[in-house]
Please model this.
Amino acid sequence: MSEAARRLTPLAVMLLALLTEDDMHPYEMKRLLHIRHDDRLVKITNGTLYHTVARLAEAGLVRELGVDRGGNRPERTTYAVTDAGRQAVAEWVRHELRWASDEPRFRVALSEAHNLDRDETVAQLTGRRDAIAADLRQTRAGLDKAAATGVPAQYLIEIERDEALAAADLAWIDSLITRLRNCEFPWASEDPARRHSPHYLAQRKAARQ
Model:
């Protein structure tokens, strides 16, 4: 992963991903994240949002297009994503889908996985799935060994919980990989017309108000 991608915060990734859809000003970005309920994934305040946009501009991942001074509204600077910004989003999502150990980062990576091709998403999730399966085998072997040597059950309940969570995660990720491979739902990179759908246009209109 490049230095630019490695330095991205989850909020920065989500803002860059919005700009891959279209040029926007920060107020519209915040509104759109709220309308889509993406603010459940990251904490968003005016301060953190504007600070993040400024840092993205300093890093050359977004660029200013102009300032809107219409009506009685405050000045609003519109930004566009650069080629480096698009690349950084893809790199971050690709890496975190496979390797994220932090749950919030993995959730953001999942929410932005549509920025990758379907096959690439499957490849990264498969790598994660194999790592989970390996950890689960190790956990189960440890539980079997502990039981065989007479370790009292009350000392193993935390490890049993780890086993249950890993098993559930493995089952879910296997199901997702299957659905992706079988093309059971549309994928953004394969459906450019989605940005002209009534639902999408309604979201954008509401975010500009």
The CA atoms of residues 97 and 111 lie 10 Å apart. The chain has two domains: 3-89+191-208, 118-181.
